[in-house]
Specification:
Chain lengths: 234, 617
């Protein structure tokens, strides 16, 4: 039997199944928390830090990632305070500066209100969200790719850079990768990285209520939890 | 060696060893810690042994090789009892004189005595040395009493009496209450109340629980844990046993970094000897308490000092932290309740049990009790390990114990707490060593590193150094730590190379705040501290780099230029000879000049010049 707990997210009282994460509950309820490394059905590691929320206990609020935070009875969560918006904006800015040519990352940056990037662009091919690594390990138990190295040298690699036979060629890693989603028609070319801002219209929402999910087209591209959930149901 | 089946057995063994000790009244104590070993104390030990044999004194003098005494700079160190005679910088050639004069005739060898760098006076005994006198050495002073490789030594000086007291008369709740009342807080950096941690672990559901000793000390310039684990591993083990009894654990781990070979060796030997004596294993000393410990070696990652990363490493996984929304006292090693404490924290436990919580709480401040070992290094006269009561002002540590600045320079700042800590300027030196006060001031006690800097250090460069360290050591899992540190370093590099702007300074502050608030583990949450604290107290240095393109301390290479003062230059040619880039030219006895095109700003000429004619601007 499923046990339920009552949590309060952004003022809404929600009955949530015990053991689910705050992010899952919020998405299910239609509260939009931007996220990148979370994929429904895979374990959460809290790598992208975009889904941060404020967990308020005894009047003190703590910033933590909602994907790794399990719901508890009486929990009070704020997903869209000024503080969270500012921090999320800064994290999205760091991400988009790293991979300005990924449409998924650009979509996230737009959703988090990044209009101008204050860091030099880098045009990397990977932001180490770990979607591919976890999918490979947890869905197919193939462990054909994993993280190698530490800090700046961290990258995704096959075991010892040679054992190709572990790969079951399911292509799931490619489907989940935020870098492989076709770029938009915007003017992004290597060497000319900047945010055109044209996709802002896709938000279809006003600034006042960015916390509720308006089925914006931004989430579609990178398998936002809500779209993915829909797909699973459909 | 036989198994100690009961508590009476332990007492009998203790009396036996005490009797043995009493037979020999002369003891020569030589430090065999890593610091003194590096200055060849092993050769001294061998030479003394040979001399004792040659002069037929080996049966009347007891030679004890101990762990670190703290005054590593003066190594190899030797103390001769009775008399408390202190010899420093001892060489193997001195062995004959030491045995023949001091040990046989009680004569003091002047040349081996310590000279106080402040007053210039030679000091005879260890207790009179200002470096030691100003300290409160509760843990460190015990290092010299025992040979870390001998459990008999530890038993003789009262080892395991705290454990016996616990097994005899205290319930787990009473121990936890005692630790709570003592006010002991985690010595590893976080300063979390130890009693509360134990209580939560004790109350956590589950039959299988673990205790872990965190000896993965990685802060640059800090070696408190190494010294304690090397010098008195039995004390740490006894603390762990008491903790295990209190929280209900049956298995413990000592996680020690592989770069500490002596600590690994001593920890392993300790566990082996304790098992042989029956002090680890089933039904310890006839009680129903069973406990065993394994020693695990770290793989060289700084982040594995973080509790969850350490546990992942122990489990055989990649040493990466995980979110701590559920604390490790409930969901720790192998998802079982786990109590993880630092070496120094464990080492404090036996004395608290023996002397009572009140004794421990009598030292220190309102929020921080007991003593703290600090690794005092940098631009001061006396460097080494010091132990002071909590609440001692930083000024006392730097000037009274440390002896003040070297080379007549002015002290500018002290960096406390390692890469997670911050820099405090000299006008904050009246602040006490206290978890809360230093945290308020933007730094932290941390594990206890204390690097003193004088006017020749550029604070922007210091921040850059720590960011480079952290960028290397971050596991790279979460965006805010990996990219945040990377971008902070990018900005600071811009500033030190003269490309910085004032807008970047604001961005740096905002980014530092974001990294602090959103990082996953303690490494990221504190990574911005060196930046934030230097920005807070030394903003004018950042601004000088940006506005005037000038490095006030003359450190940042892109912003400085070497030149020769023609007034002071005597034309001796030393600099010209020393310059490996051929940048200096000039006739003999005529003022020389530096060609800025060729100069690589290595500073060799400056250290060679006897007339202080080389200027840095």
């Amino acid at each position: 039997m499923l046990h339920y707990v009552t949590v309060n997210i952004d003022g809404a009282t929600i009955k949530a199944p015990k053991g689910s994460s705050v992010l899952e509950v919020a998405i299910e309820y239609g509260i939009c928390i931007p996220h990148l490394c979370h994929v429904p059905g895979l374990s959460d590691i809290g790598a992208c830090r975009l889904c941060i929320v404020e967990n308020v206990t005894n009047g003190r609020s703590q910033v933590t990632t909602s994907c790794t935070l399990k719901v508890q009875e009486g929990m009070v969560i704020r997903t869209n305070t000024e503080r969270i918006k500012r921090l999320r904006h800064n994290i999205a800015e760091l991400l988009v500066a790293e991979a300005p040519n990924s449409r998924a990352i650009q979509d996230i940056a737009v959703r988090c209100g990044v209009k101008k990037v204050r860091y030099p662009f880098r045009n990397n091919n990977c932001v180490l969200c770990g979607r591919c690594v976890r999918a490979c390990a947890e869905i197919w138990h193939a462990n054909a790719i994993g993280f190698v190295g530490r800090g700046k040298n961290r990258h995704v690699e096959r075991p010892l850079n040679m054992r190709e036979e572990f790969c079951k060629q399911c292509d799931y890693c490619i489907q989940l990768c935020p870098m492989t989603i076709p770029p938009c028609d915007g003017p992004m070319k290597p060497g000319e990285e900047y945010l055109c801002g044209k996709c802002e219209s896709q938000l279809m929402i006003t600034e006042e209520v960015p916390d509720s999910c308006a089925w914006c087209r931004l989430g579609e591209g990178f398998n936002c939890g809500r779209y993915a959930g829909l797909k699973a149901v459909g | 060696m036989h198994k100690l089946a009961t508590r009476e057995d332990l007492e009998t063994t203790r009396q036996q060893h005490l009797l043995d000790r009493k037979k020999i009244n002369k003891t020569i104590i030589i430090c065999g810690g890593t610091g003194c070993t590096a200055s060849r104390s092993q050769d001294v030990i061998n030479a003394i042994n040979q001399e004792l044999l040659a002069q037929d004194m080996d049966s009347s003098v007891h030679l004890r090789v101990t762990g670190c005494h703290g005054f590593c700079e003066q190594g190899p160190i030797m103390v001769i009892e009775p008399g408390n005679i202190f010899y420093c910088h001892v060489t193997p050639d001195d062995a004959h004189d030491i045995v023949a004069l001091t040990l046989r005739d009680g004569e003091i060898i002047e040349r081996l005595l310590y000279t106080d760098p402040v007053s210039g006076i030679k000091i005879r005994t260890e207790s009179e040395i200002p470096f030691y006198r100003a300290q409160d050495r509760q843990l460190l002073s015990r290092n010299r009493e025992v040979n870390p490789c001998s459990i008999e030594d530890y038993i003789a000086v009262g080892g395991y009496t705290a454990l016996v007291k616990v097994l005899d008369s205290l319930s787990p709740e009473e121990i936890i209450h005692e630790i709570k009342v003592s006010g002991l807080r985690g010595r590893g950096g976080g300063g979390f109340p130890t009693g509360r941690k134990w209580a939560e672990c004790h109350e956590a559901p589950g039959d299988e629980k673990y205790v872990i000793c965190n000896a993965d000390e990685g802060d640059p310039g800090a070696y408190m844990d190494r010294c304690v684990l090397e010098g008195n591993p039995y004390l740490v083990l006894e603390g762990m046993m008491i903790g295990a009894y209190a929280v209900g654990a049956t298995k413990g781990y000592i996680y020690v970094r592989n770069e500490y070979p002596l600590a690994v060796k001593h920890a392993r030997l300790t566990v082996q000897q304790a098992r042989k004596y029956g002090l680890l294993g089933e039904d310890i000393l006839g009680s129903s308490f069973s406990f065993d410990v394994d020693v695990a070696r770290g793989g060289g990652a700084f982040v594995c000092g973080e509790s969850t990363a350490l546990m992942a490493s122990l489990e055989g996984k990649v040493g990466e932290p995980r979110p701590k929304d559920v604390h490790t006292v409930v969901d720790g090693l192998w998802h079982k309740p786990t109590t993880l404490n630092n070496v120094e924290t464990w080492a404090n436990v036996p004395s608290i049990i023996l002397n009572g919580a009140k004794w421990f709480a009598s030292k220190g401040t309102k929020g921080s009790k007991g003593t703290k070992i600090l690794a005092l290094t940098g631009r001061i006269k006396n460097t080494g390990l010091v132990e002071v009561a909590m609440g001692t002002p930083i000024r006392d540590v730097v000037f009274t114990i440390g002896g003040g600045a070297v080379d007549g320079k002015a002290i500018k700042a002290v960096q406390t707490g390692g890469p997670s800590g911050g820099c405090l300027p000299v006008d904050k030196f009246d602040l006490p060593v206290d978890f809360d006060v230093l945290y308020e001031a933007g730094s932290m006690v941390g594990s206890g590193g204390m690097v003193v800097m004088d006017e020749s250090s550029c604070m922007v460069d210091v921040a850059k150094y720590f960011l480079t360290f952290l960028q290397d050591e971050s596991c790279g899992m979460c965006v805010s730590c990996r990219l945040g540190i990377d971008r902070m370093l990018e900005i600071i590099t811009d500033i030190t190379e003269g490309r910085g702007t004032l807008e970047q300074l604001d961005l740096l502050e905002e980014l530092a705040d974001t990294v602090t608030q959103t990082s996953l583990c303690g490494l990221g949450k504190t990574a911005a501290n060196p930046v934030l604290s230097t920005l807070r107290y030394f903003r004018e240095e950042y601004e000088a780099h940006i506005n005037e393109k000038r490095c006030p301390a003359g450190v940042c290479k892109a912003l400085i230029e070497y030149s020769i003062d023609p007034e002071k230059c005597t034309g001796c040619g030393r600099c010209k000879q020393a310059c490996i880039h051929g940048a200096i030219s000039g006739e003999k006895k005529e003022p020389h000049v530096i060609d800025p095109e060729l100069c690589q700003k290595c500073g060799i000429c400056r250290s060679e010049c006897k007339h202080e004619a080389i200027q840095v601007k």
